[in-house]
Amino acid sequence: MAGDRAQDVGPEHGATAGRTHLGHLRLVGRDRELAELDAWIDDPDAPRVMVVEGERGAGRTAFADAAAERLRGRGRLVLPLACRDGDERDPLLLALRVVVAAWEHRSAAGRVRPDLRAEAVSAVDRGDRTAVADALVTALTQAAPVAVVVDDVQHADPASLDVLGTVTARVPPPGVRLVVTSLRHTPGGGPVATGPRGRAVGPPAGHGVSRTIALPCLTPGQIADLTAPRLQAVPDAALVERVFALTRGVPAAADALLSAWAGRDAVRVADGHAFLAPDAPTPLLPDDDRFMRALGGLGEPCAAVAAALSVLWPLGRTAATMAARSTGLSEREVAACTGRLVAVGVLDELPWREAHFARGWTFRSPLVEHTVRERSGPLSRARLSAAAVEALWAAGDGTGGEVGPDRPALIVDEAEAQTYLLERIVDAGGLVDRDRAVSELTAAADALHPDHEDRRMLRWLRAALRLIEDPAARELALLRCAKGAWVVGDHRTAGGAAETILRAPSDALSGPELQEIANLLVGATAAGKDWPRLSRMGSARWWEALSLPAVAAVPAQALALCLAERWQEAVDLLSRTRAQWATGARGRLLPDLARAVGNVVRGTPGSLPVTLLPPQGPGVPPDLVYAMTAAYCELLLGVRDLAGTTSLLRARGLTPEALPAHSRFLLLHLQGRCDEAMALSRWLFAKEQTFAPAPHHHLLPARTAAILVAKGRPAAAARLIDRARGDGDGPLEVFLDLADGAVLSALGRPEAAGQVLRRGLRAADARGYVHGTDELAAALTVVQVAAGRPGEAAASLRRLEDVAARTGNERTRLLRLLASARLAGRYGSDDVRDMLHEAVELARSRGQPFETAVTLSAAARGADRPELLHEAYELFGETGAALRRFHTRSAMRAAGLAVPGRKQSAEENERLLAALLTDGLTNRQIATVLRLSEDAVANRLTRLFARTGLRSRTEFVSAMLTGDPLGEGGR
């Protein structure tokens, strides 16, 4: 036998020689284990044998590669080998491979006897362990110092392991080191399990002491470290949590999961951060995946038992009884199968829990569990799920008998148990009591409302809808689906469900209820950016085709006009039809809001007093009160009224956390919590939750861009603005124009900034907009003053003063004071100090940190009060405005003021420079943004690269995206 395989036992056969060995190889989460390996290699008195243990996918092969690389670096000849499944059937095969590997490597130099290979083959054929051992000692001694690295030694034949253990002890030190990797499973709470056939692996005892390194599963933090370079982005905490939950920290499983998601475009990257896309599915592992091969190698009936347990395992020991019934196997056969599934690491047998009847099993990898369950087929899943549901219902009703094998005892916590039951109801479909299933699914979905992130709500509502047969009940369920879909951002589903109801509404729906549904349809159409259809919805004819009552049709038509930015038409329509829709508190909610928004946009004096609270009462559902309150908060936040928003939330007994994510972003921005605002903004973009109705359609990207500019990332802000712009048919882009002007000004392009600001004002005039034009006019005034155009600046200021007079808005008043001071200050006005004093007092009273800091900076310069720079400096630091803080630092030095924290300032300068570099700016652009010379920037970059050890911009940007090269001491 050995003679026949003599050509197949060299180093290329089953070896790691073909792998790429990298000197900078870094294994994520293995720093401690690698340090232990290094200590073993460098210790002349250490045991000769190192056993590396880990479960399937733990990275044993990668660790073996790292060991080989380190041993080579210490001047040893490395013989890399790998065992295969089935090798254990060939006695002494591994020992022969080691002899041949050493012989082939050294025979050319004449240091090994030419006949040694033939002698070894002959000894193996005879089964002469002593002769094989002698040949092995000769080969290794003459090749010394040598290291034998054997991967997957659990497949090795026992005779070879015995010989290797003997020989390792016989070769004089420091002649040989032996590194072997072995598959071992560590069940939760239990002892270390041996290889797939239950025997020990590695050199047996009695031949000297070996050292063992166990490769544990990765922690969530290490999963994040693994994910970042793979995605070239910082992974979101929820993404890391999902990867960890599905893989239990097994590196290969995490890699397979990330590969599958990448193949499905299920990962979104926003501002250098990676998120899972909305409704990102849990993928199925392919048949050739290592985990599925382990299961497939068991064949039937183990596969059938695994499929049954993938549905039933949370039922504890009862799952085995139910699996036997579903598969037609005896309970003894099921027990044998579960034992084999545990042995290969597919299942874990759970430890005893006193609160339950008996122990049970769980899948070692939730990803494998999901794959097995989904591949079992819908009919099989439905039957198993129905059995589980019926058993749980019976147990809950007290009709399931005494605790025993036939009564389920859930082995998961209460929250998981509830979700498990609901998911089994979903899969069971019509095989269980429909009425009870609908009741439980609906109640659970209602309990999640208004959770904007948990999409289980919509899944459960859809499942309930499929079970309902009564037309009236189906209509109500469809309405629940529409509302649920809207809450989680599935606007297509929401609009489709709403239109289905409106095409044939039942008599059970009241006028106000029909109004809500019609409004939802209009909102979903706008969210889908179907602007032509939205425009058609602004005509009475479109609604007449649906035969809706006026209390529903008129407000929906007015809403369509508002979202199409035909504000005057909307206000006129609502004014002349008030008698048709103002029939009660509920019916007035949205029309009153639409009129308030229209008045704000048109700049009607005193158009938004805080007393415009949405009504509440016995006829208004709580969810509608919440929706209207959130809408009014959005409107107040849009005009930068932080105090008004806070008052409204307090009046309604709501916390800021209860607001929708878009409004929370605006609130955080005004509160100066810009890092939190940016994190939420990234999430909104990645999850495709950016829709906001006019007039604030573009407020999220515009204010996100403003944060980016303040942080020193103008190029990222410009890219964001470009992506947010439409084709000209959609909502007005005044806020994007404002943000664009700030970007261009920061990049030293004042002429271009002036052009985009003037364009925004022209577009606003064309559509009858006043809202937002105060910001544009103020910014244009500043640009024109800086360009030395006092006449044009004065014209822009007059426009700003007109808006301030019309609206009485505090923000507009503040902008007017600052712009007036800027113009008057440059051209000799004596009133500058008074204006800036008033501006500082007003800004402080408004309680918005960034706005206050900007005002203080202006007052320090224009009113000759440099001491105000200290306060501005601190506020810019609190808001994370790194670029503004840098400029303030420069102004303080120019004014002869001491800048606190020299070391901190140096670190901030370095991080700001890194941000600008990562943003993709050239040296010239960086110099413009920082207001430095190009030589100064070049010198700073040279020092930055030297400290971090990074040699190029590309390498630096990659490091910034996946880690923190600016940590203490660089890399």
Characterization of this structure:
Residues 183-206 are annotated as: Disordered. This is AAA family ATPase. Keywords: ATP-binding, Nucleotide-binding. By secondary structure, the protein is mainly alpha-helical. Helix content is 61%, strand content 5%. It contains 46 helices and ten strands. The strands form three sheets. A five-stranded parallel beta sheet has the order 2-3-4-1-5, with helices on both faces. Strand 3, helix 6 (158-170) and strand 4 form a beta-alpha-beta unit. Helix 37 runs antiparallel to helix 38 (810-826). The longest helix is centred in the middle third of the chain and has 20 residues, at 378-397. The two termini are 54 Å apart.
Features:
61% helix, 5% strand, P-loop_NTPase, flat, AAA_16, disordered N terminus, five-stranded parallel sheet
What is the fold's blueprint, element by element?
Layout lengths: L30 H12 L6 E6 L5 H14 L3 E6 L10 H14 L9 H11 L2 H15 L2 E6 L6 H13 L5 E8 L26 E6 L4 H12 L2 E2 L1 H11 L3 H13 L3 E4 L2 E4 L13 H7 L5 H11 L5 H10 L3 H13 L3 E3 L11 E3 L2 H10 L2 H20 L16 H15 L5 H15 L7 H12 L3 H17 L3 H13 L7 H17 L3 H7 L2 H5 L5 H14 L3 H10 L1 H4 L3 H18 L19 H17 L3 H10 L9 H10 L3 H13 L12 H13 L2 H11 L9 H13 L3 H17 L6 H14 L3 H18 L2 H17 L5 H15 L2 H14 L5 H11 L3 H13 L7 H17 L4 H8 L3 H15 L4 H10 L9
Parallel strand pairs: 1-4, 1-5, 2-3, 3-4, 6-8
Antiparallel strand pairs: 7-8, 9-10
